[in-house]
Structures are given as structure tokens and as C-alpha cells.
């Protein structure tokens, strides 16, 4: 942890310009140039292993992917390669500040660290005295994937019995759908893509968001002549790399999967012997799929029958077919069903039996890290309510259902996330944050949309300025991220803030508090018989199970070892299942017995004839990197992709200002007319800051917070909207 010292006291008296200058020259740390080893801290399955140049002046230089790491393989995305641009950005937050004027007015006064932490603790105590402990809601997410800095907030939550946090916004539909079939969240070694004869990249724009997937897929193409199939809802950079590109309507992935399995049974590609041994009801599945023909799927997906037949034939005759299943296609109200249906293809074909074959989404279940003390799990009280992260707008505006029919939230600490920008139902979120009776402290690196509406803003360290540990769901490594450069004297780690609040709130003597980052890391590693120093020497741990375990050679993750074609949608354990008291979410009673296309999505109608997807931008990562000049220049401005037929019908030309709207609100942005989208489909890339839009409101004005069945999640790519030309 960083400690208050004379340098901080001196710098607190400097002007904003002086802060920036102090930060940009870095804290002196003279020595020889060297290469430091770390991990990318951002919310990406690749969690790349990094080699970072550190100059003799102690400043961060160029960032490269580690060539020694077998998954990263020397390749990283351009935005992380330019990380020094972010670390030494002139607009980085450099001092604690307290709001002076009205919320959102932009009027701030300097405050010392001690005074700021005292004020946060005092407001938490006031909230507790007025409405009970559940009035305080610590809120966080994946702005850093470092386990110590990210998850320590949970220890404070549980120790104080503050409202619980159901982290639904990103992974739940995908994780749930996968475990409904496989019974666990792991799969074939992702490096096996390089040994495949057919790599299917389904629902993830890997060129933009998981560059290492492309590293191994392209290697298979070059060395083995492998075919690359890309399935998505628009012509993104990954689709441009495909041998077969399947552009389907949003939310219709399960229909395609069912048709592929229909063809496998029809044409003799289904591995009946494998299913007899390893699946629950192949006979019932075959009967169910008898009517799920390519013609049936073509009418739903917008693909041609020939496209579906060609894809089905390719994977059917290619034993080493590797299905790399992403998050994107699951962010619909039928997303868990779509993931399960796509996963079933590998079992029908028996692809799991072959190196370079099977299906993979995440390896999250393979890491044996002990986090219970870090997160304060011993203190968990099941009677404390749990609030859904994705429904923050409803919670802060007093929705009784979202609040679990209990009292209001009147105090928050926010770390590692930017809900005023990234959460669904943005107008409700902003309305809630503007409440006069809501106290909000935000610990951040930049003045985000959320920080702008806070009462107190605290400056946070970046990943090279503190110790932490990372694990990569998209691969198999635990990676150490040690402190490599000295932080500015006036910024603090997440752990520091949690520890200092624990002291002020009377829980610092409880187990798990009072430990350094290095001590927490060592406590997580007993399975590997290693400590912080040992991991620093090794750089990472390869946790990949052997072939038989990774390919489910002794059975899948259920007690009977059988893959589930017939999932138990409301009783199956899952990596992030809601607490039992909350029950199943969404229209779970409408979920199918077998893999199928279900119309629980937000379908277009006469008033809202378009379907909107809010896909990631190449040089942003959620709301990170939106502050850097390089990323903003490459992205240009907020735009919506419109098919030429739809544009012509409304007299819209490329570059025109258009308005999109639905029952949640409306926004204006510029049109990008392109045949890269299907008629009736609109795509808006990137989570731009709200202020980058013409009216100061972002794309999440249009997205909904209805939970995805059965275990929750946010359906960011499942929105019906109207569109018109405007001024």
C-alpha cells in the first residue's frame, strides 16, 4: 500500500498544471533501463502477458506482448501497446476533490486524503443510522482484473454487512449457457486452435477484442490450411478474415446451431457412439431437431440455405473443428439458450475427442486461487439483500422490485467501473445519481461520467504502479503484475482506500484486513506451493488441465458425467448463480427443453422496426481508453451503421445526423451508411463518453436492464428502436 508522506503534502498545494507536470516527469527512480513483466489489467479474456520497457528515469516506455508466454505469443492490441499515453495523460486525476456546487456542475475543491476518507466514512455511518446497513452499496467491476485491487471491496462489504452485489452485467448469459451443457466452465486448451482444421469464431470480434484468438487461428490457417468461420451480426474486422462469413440477424444464433445439428444427423456426421456414452438424450434431441431444417433456420437468421448447408458440411466432415464461443452473441434476452445451443454442436459431432477440436468459452473453472479471505467470505450474511448491478438505474430511482422491497440506497463507493456511462437504462442511472440524498465517492483514474456526478473523487493508481495478480479466462495462465514504476505521490491504490475505510468504520481488526498486496497474493497461492516472490521469478503459472480433463474424456461436469442436451434451466449450478432467495431471473419458464430458438428477445415491431446492437470498438475497451488521443482519433466520432436500403428509404446520407429512440429514450448521432449490416439492423460501436454525443447522452440510453433468463445478465445487443433523420 502507498502511504501518506511529505511528497504528498507538498504536492497538495500545487496547481492543476503543476500536478500534471509532476505526474508527467514521474517520481524520480534513477537506474538502468530494464524490461518489466506484467499482465494487461483490462476487462478482456486474453489478459495478455506483457514486457514493459522501464527507462533509467523510471518512466514506462513501450509495451509488448511477451513472446515467452505461449498464449500471448508476443502479440497485443494497439491500445495497450500505447499504454504510456494513458499513464502519463495530462487529464489523469491527481488529487482528491470534493464537490462544491450542484451535482454535475463541475465545481470542485481540493481536499486532503485524510479529510476525504473521513467524509466517506462519516456519510456511510449516517446512511446506516438513518436506513440500516443495507443503505450502503459498494459498487465495482472490471476496470482492473487484478484480484487484489478489484475484489478487496467485497471484504469491506461483507465485514460491514452492506448491501450485496450481484455482478450480472457482463458474463452471466454466456457462463450460464455453457455450464448448462458442460456442467463446468472450462474446455480444450485455447492454444489448440493452432492445431485445428476448422476454427469457428462465434459471436466475438476477436481482431478488435481478443487479438490472441486470431494469432492461433491464423497459425492454423498458415500451417494446416485450416478454414476460419466467423459468425456475427455485422461485417466487423474479424469477419473480414474469414473463409466463411455468416452474418445473421441479432439473437438468432440458436436457430443456426439447431440447423447445423439437424444436418449432422441427416447426413451421418453425428457421432452416435460418442453421444451414447457422453450425452443425456441424443435420441430425444434428434427427434426434436427433425423440423429444424436449414430452410427453417434461414427464415429466422437471414442466412441463405446454401450458407447454412456449407457451414454444416464443413464442421461435419472436419473432426478437428474448434468452436471459439464469445460473449457477444449471448448479450440478448435468449443469450444463455444461444450459448447452450452452439455448445451442443461439439457434442453431436464428437469434436471433443480430437486435439484441436471441441468448444471453448472460458477457462474460469481451472484456477485454484484461494480468495475467501481476500473477499471476506467468512463474514457473509445470507439475510443481507443482494442488488443487481445491471439494474442500478432502477435501484437508485426507488424501484421496489429492484430494491428487493427494502429501503433505499443512500451511500456508495465506486471502484473500477463507470455506471453512468456503461450501465443500461442510462437516463434512470443519471436520475438516480443526481439525487440530493445520495452520497457517492468515486475512486478513479480519470474524470469519468460517473466521477462527474460524485460528491468525492479520489485518484487511483494504474496497474504498473501497484502489485496484483491476474488470471485469464480466455487462456490458462495466472500472471503476476508486480509494481514496476513509482506512482505519483498523490494517488492511492484500491487496497489503500479499503484499508483506510475499514479503520474508520471499525472493522480493520477482522481477518483479511491489514495485509499488503504481496501478502494477499501469497495467501491465494497455496495450491501451487508458491508465494509472491516465487511467482515473480516464474512470471506466470500454466494451469491448463491435461488433454483428457480438458476434453472431458472421463465425462462432463455433472455427477453422471453426461453432457446435457436437456438442461435444467433453474436448478443447475453455475459460476455466478443468483442467491437462492432471488430465484431464477427473466422469463425462465419459456426456456426450451432442447436447444432451440426462443423469441424472448426484443423483436422489432411496427413502431420500432430496427434492431440495435452496441458492439465494442477496436481501440476502446468498455469506457477505458476513450480518454486517450490515439484511440479517439482512430474511432472518429459516435456513429450508427445503417444499411443503404434503410438509409435510402428515409433520405439519410452518410454523415447525416439521425435520431434513434425507444421507450427508454432517444439520442442523436451521425449515420454511417454501409452494407456491412443487414437491412433492419443498426450497429453502434464503442461506449463513447456521454459528452462525446451530440446531446450529452450515450448509447446506453437505449439499452434495457431486463435480466436474461435464467440467471441474469444485461442484454446490450438486444434493443428495438426507431430511426429518423434529424438536424
TrEMBL record:
Domain 4Fe-4S Mo/W bis-MGD-type: 33-91
Keyword Protein transport in record: no
Transcription regulation keyword on record: no
Database matches in InterPro entries: Asp_de-COase-like_dom_sf (IPR009010), MoPterin_dinucl-bd_dom (IPR006657), Mopterin_OxRdtase (IPR006656), Mopterin_OxRdtase_4Fe-4S_dom (IPR006963), Mopterin_OxRdtase_prok_CS (IPR006655), Prok_Mopterin_Oxidored (IPR050612), YoaE_C (IPR037920)
Gene3D superfamilies, per the entry: 2.40.40.20, 3.40.50.740, ADC-like domains (2.20.25.90), Dimethylsulfoxide Reductase, domain 2 (3.40.228.10), Formate dehydrogenase/DMSO reductase (3.30.2070.10)
Keywords of this entry: Iron, Iron-sulfur, Metal-binding, Molybdenum, Oxidoreductase
Reported cofactor(s): Mo-bis(molybdopterin guanine dinucleotide)
Domain of life: Bacteria
Pfam families per the UniProt record, alphabetical: Molybdop_Fe4S4, Molybdopterin, Molydop_binding
Transmembrane segments: none
Family of this protein: Belongs to the prokaryotic molybdopterin-containing oxidoreductase family.
The protein's name in its UniProt record: Molybdopterin oxidoreductase family protein
Organism: Shinella curvata
Lineage: Bacteria, Pseudomonadati, Pseudomonadota, Alphaproteobacteria, Hyphomicrobiales
Amino acid at each position: 500500500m502507498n502511504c501518506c508522506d511529505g511528497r504528498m503534502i507538498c504536492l497538495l498545494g500545487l496547481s492543476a498544471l503543476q500536478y500534471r507536470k509532476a505526474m508527467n516527469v514521474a517520481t524520480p527512480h534513477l537506474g538502468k533501463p530494464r524490461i518489466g513483466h506484467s499482465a494487461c489489467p483490462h476487462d478482456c479474456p486474453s489478459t495478455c502477458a506483457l514486457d514493459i520497457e522501464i527507462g533509467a528515469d523510471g518512466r514506462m516506455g513501450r509495451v509488448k506482448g511477451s513472446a515467452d508466454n505461449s498464449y500471448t505469443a508476443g502479440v497485443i492490441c494497439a491500445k495497450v501497446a500505447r499504454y504510456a499515453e494513458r499513464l502519463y495523460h495530462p487529464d489523469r486525476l491527481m488529487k482528491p476533490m470534493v464537490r462544491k456546487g450542484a451535482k454535475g456542475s463541475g465545481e470542485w475543491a481540493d481536499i486532503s486524503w485524510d479529510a476525504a476518507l473521513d467524509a466517506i466514512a462519516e456519510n456511510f455511518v449516517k446512511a446506516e443510522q438513518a436506513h440500516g446497513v443495507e443503505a450502503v452499496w459498494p459498487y465495482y467491476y472490471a476496470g482492473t482484473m487484478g484480484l487484489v485491487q478489484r475484489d478487496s471491496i467485497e471484504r469491506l462489504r461483507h465485514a460491514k454487512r452492506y448491501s450485496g452485489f450481484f455482478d450480472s452485467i457482463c458474463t452471466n448469459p454466456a457462463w450460464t449457457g455453457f455450464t448448462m451443457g458442460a456442467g463446468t466452465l472450462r474446455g480444450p486448451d485455447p492454444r489448440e486452435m493452432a492445431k485445428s482444421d476448422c476454427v469457428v469464431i462465434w459471436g466475438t470480434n476477436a481482431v478488435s477484442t481478443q487479438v490472441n484468438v486470431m494469432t492461433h487461428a491464423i497459425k492454423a490457417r498458415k500451417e494446416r490450411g485450416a478454414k476460419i468461420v466467423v459468425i456475427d451480426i455485422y461485417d466487423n474486422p474479424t469477419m473480414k478474415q474469414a473463409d466463411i462469413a455468416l452474418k445473421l440477424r441479432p439473437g438468432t444464433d440458436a436457430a443456426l446451431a439447431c440447423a447445423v445439428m439437424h444436418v449432422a444427423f441427416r447426413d451421418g456426421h453425428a457421432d452416435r457412439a460418442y453421444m451414447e456414452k457422453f450425452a443425456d438424450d441424443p435420441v430425444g434431441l434428434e427427434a426434436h431437431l427433425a423440423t429444424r431444417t436449414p430452410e427453417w433456420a434461414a427464415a429466422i437468421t437471414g442466412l441463405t440455405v446454401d450458407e447454412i448447408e456449407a457451414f454444416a458440411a464443413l464442421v461435419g466432415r472436419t473432426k478437428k473443428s474448434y468452436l471459439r464461443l464469445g460473449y457477444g452473441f449471448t448479450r440478448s434476452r435468449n443469450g444463455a439458450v444461444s450459448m447452450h445451443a452452439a455448445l451442443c454442436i461439439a457434442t453431436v459431432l464428437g469434436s471433443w475427442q480430437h486435439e484441436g477440436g471441441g468448444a471453448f468459452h472460458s477457462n474460469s473453472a481451472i484456477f485454484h486461487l484461494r480468495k475467501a479471505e481476500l473477499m471476506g467470505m467468512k463474514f457473509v450474511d445470507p439475510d443481507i439483500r443482494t442488488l443487481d448491478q445491471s439494474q442500478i438505474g432502477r435501484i437508485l430511482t426507488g424501484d421496489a422490485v429492484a430494491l428487493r422491497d427494502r429501503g433505499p440506497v443512500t451511500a456508495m463507493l465506486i471502484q473500477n467501473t463507470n455506471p453512468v456511462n456503461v450501465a443500461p437504462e442510462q437516463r434512470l442511472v443519471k436520475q438516480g445519481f443526481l439525487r440530493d440524498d445520495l452520497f457517492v465517492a468515486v475512486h478513479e483514474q480519470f474524470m469519468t461520467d460517473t466521477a462527474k456526478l460524485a460528491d468525492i473523487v479520489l485518484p487511483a493508481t494504474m496497474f504498473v504502479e501497484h502489485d496484483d495478480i491476474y488470471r485469464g479466462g480466455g487462456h490458462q495462465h495466472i500472471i503476476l503484475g508486480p509494481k514496476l514504476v513509482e506512482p505519483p505521490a498523490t494517488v492511492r491504490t484500491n487496497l489503500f482506500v479499503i484499508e483506510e475505510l475499514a479503520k474508520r468504520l471499525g472493522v480493520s481488526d477482522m481477518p483479511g484486513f491489514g495485509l499488503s498486496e504481496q501478502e494477499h497474493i501469497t495467501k491465494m497461492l497455496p495450491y501451487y506451493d508458491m508465494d509472491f516472490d516465487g511467482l515473480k521469478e516464474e512470471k506466470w503459472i500454466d494451469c491448463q488441465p491435461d488433454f483428457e480433463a480438458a476434453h472431458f474424456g472421463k465425462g462432463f461436469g455433472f455427477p453422471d458425467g453426461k453432457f446435457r442436451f436437456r438442461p435444467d434451466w433453474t436448478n443447475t449450478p453455475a459460476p455466478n448463480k443468483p442467491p437462492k432467495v432471488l430465484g431464477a431471473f427473466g422469463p425462465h419458464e419459456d426456456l426450451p427443453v432442447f436447444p432451440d430458438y426462443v423469441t424472448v428477445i426484443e423483436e422489432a415491431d411496427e413502431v420500432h422496426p430496427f434492431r440495435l446492437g452496441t458492439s465494442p470498438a477496436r481501440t476502446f475497451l468498455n469506457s477505458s481508453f476513450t480518454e486517450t488521443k490515439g484511440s479517439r482519433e482512430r474511432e472518429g466520432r459516435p456513429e450508427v451503421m445503417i444499411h443503404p436500403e434503410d438509409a435510402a428509404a428515409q433520405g439519410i446520407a452518410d454523415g447525416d445526423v439521425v435520431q434513434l429512440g425507444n421507450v427508454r429514450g432517444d439520442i442523436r448521432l451521425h449515420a454511417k451508411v454501409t452494407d456491412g449490416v443487414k437491412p433492419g439492423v443498426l450497429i453502434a460501436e464503442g461506449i463513447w463518453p456521454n459528452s462525446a454525443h451530440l446531446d450529452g447522452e450515450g448509447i446506453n440510453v437505449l439499452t434495457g436492464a431486463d435480466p436474461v433468463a435464467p440467471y441474469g445478465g444485461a442484454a446490450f445487443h438486444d434493443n428495438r428502436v426507431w430511426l429518423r433523420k434529424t438536424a
